[in-house]
Amino acid sequence: MSGGSGDSSPSSGRASFSSLSGLKDLELSSESGCLSIVVLGASGDLAKKKTFPALFHLFQQGFLQSGEVHIFGYARSNISDDGLRERIRGYLKGASDEHISQFLQLIKYVSGSYNSGEGFASLNNAISENETSKNNKPGSSRRLFYLALPPSVYPSVCKMIRSYCMNPSSHSGWTRVIVEKPFGKDLESAEELSAQLGELFNEQQLYRIDHYLGKELVQNLLVLRFANRLFLPLWNRDNIANVQIVFREDFGTEGRGGYFDQYGIIRDIIQNHLLQVFCLVAMEKPVSLKPEHIRDEKVKVLQSVTPIKHDEVVLGQYDGYKDDSTVPDDSNTPTFASLVLRVNNERWEGVPFILKAGKALNNRKAEIRVQFKDAPGDIFKCKKQGRNEFVIRLQPSEAMYMKLTVKKPGLEMATEQSELDLSYGLRYQDVKIPEAYERLILDTIRGDQQHFVRRDELKAAWEIFTPLLHDIDDGKVKALPYKPGTRGPPEADELSKRMGYVQTHGYVWIPPTLSKF
User: Where in the sequence numbering do the catalytic residues fall?
Assistant: First the structure.
């Protein structure tokens, strides 16, 4: 198989930085030679809204050089190079027309089907011609394929890539493939897909992308946990009462009801995005920052999760979801879910991890909420005001804040809830926080798999959720109705309360702004 030494990069052992521009002066990779980036599904929404803008931002920051990179779009649509460029142009922001045009000139388009050798042979010819025109050294070409496609076509597309489009040398060049979620619908389908792709590419060539792993605050979790002495003695069952990992959207399926109904909120959000966050919150300290050491610890904590209990699950479906003509009238697909994971190990025994996600709710946010136990001996009689909580706001308004009980200013010895606050928009005003896809594409070019999902990690994740998902599909666990614009089913708040979560009443965190100062 192609890939050779090019699939191992010195970047593997390096820590992440808050701004990609801080990496340009570091020698993270000694690789050189022509880089061909192929976006399959180039005319689709994902490619236009995420993939091409991410490539453009990397070009803006100097990580993609016009002298060594070329970008190819591949899809079934019968359009020209300029036709694809004009489709993309409207999604490229924050630069002059001249700079955008320079980037667009790097893009060529090849039309073909996803199961036809003829189309992929034409794609390979276009790539090879470009490599030759750039006076590429023999064996130093690098080929990156981004599958912005539904998983149903992954096997056929990967077979075509393997048969027609591999880097011709196994010496110093490489071929790498990025695949998007969902990776199957349950354990059996995920293992089948993994087996099919595993016959074509080795694990060092496959990059299973989960864009949550590219988010700034998610990437900060390892640093927070293992670089700060403050957290080391606190991060365990002796001090932590419960952990919530929450994803909320204030809109519904928005015309995607038929597609969403095949998956539901657990497959769409919880089994992948929130579970990846859970791993970083709950895992043990890796022996180094090498990708395999980090992923080993993630697999260990997943394998320590006990089976999910039905009485620790609340499902919901918002009123009006089935008004979409593409959604079956008898659909039991949840648009909301709150469930409890329990980890059977020395650090976390007895601590509930509440994973919660929903659509058509009262606000939009994603956050981690670590709630600590009550302080013993409540001499200030302030227990009713709330507990200490460490909150990591992933989106929007990225921030970390610690809720504390403090003395209320004045002559009386009265207490109130306040916070220690690190809001990124205020603290890092001059720093551009990269989008998740920018980081992950750059990681792939460098051969750094730290922020990608390994095959055994994927299997362990599906082993946790498949029994519950099958029970939902069989109607054994019902979705409760809830009104759009609310917190979801009231039963979800009751579950959190039953798990020991104490809600703080009368306190609302407000992101600070410069106008306050």
Answer: 273
